[in-house]
Amino acid sequence: MTPRPFVVSQRLLASALLRPGQxxxxxxxxxxxxxxxxxxxxxxxxxxxxxxxxxDRLSGLQQEMEKLxxxxxKQYGYIESAIVVMxxxxxxxxxxxxxxxxxxxxxxxxxxxxxxxxxxxxxFAGHSCQKDTDDKKEEDGRNELxxxxxxxxxxxxxxxxxxxxxDVLKELLVDRLDAKSRLTVGLxxxxxxxxx
Length: 196
Hints:
- This protein is of the alpha/beta class and 196 residues long.
- The chain has helices at 10-18, 61-75, 100-110, 166-174; strands at residues 6-8, 39-45, 83-87, 119-132, 142-146, 164-165, 182-192.
- The protein has one domain (6-15, 39-192): Rossmann fold, CATH 3.40.50.
- It is built from four helices and seven strands; from the N terminus they run E-H-E-H-E-H-E-E-E-H-E.
- The radius of gyration is 17 Å and the shape is globular.
- GO terms for molecular function: cysteine-type endopeptidase activity.
- This is Caspase domain containing protein.
């Protein structure tokens, strides 16, 4: 049986960031002891600051992600080296720019050396959209997509071909998860209704 991820709603995530005393029960508040579960996190925040259309640009997502990172370090016993941060801020290592290729690579790396009982957190803050599909597995006839930074180029329209489809995320994040490990997913995004 495939384990189900715990998905954190925007409201719950905002509550957790504002009131650290009322945090997610799915994240163990105990510090890691030798032989205990490893805790790893992949945190992605994209402002699309170079998007051609100013209305597509977001703000404040990196700051919210930094609050979450501080919370994981202070309250939940994560260690700095086990948290990967991807953003489109100036000066970031190009390998950590939230492009499609880089995001998929870092998701693959998240589960390197996976052991039963490990705890994982995947957090994405940015744009998402839906796109029509003939796939019969999609009850609503639409795929859900998260939009990497290059989906919003500085010199052209939104490019959904660069997006990451929900089926790919399920395959990489859920299907590869050991039955005794735990995955928490936090999604904070703006859903675009443009009829892609």
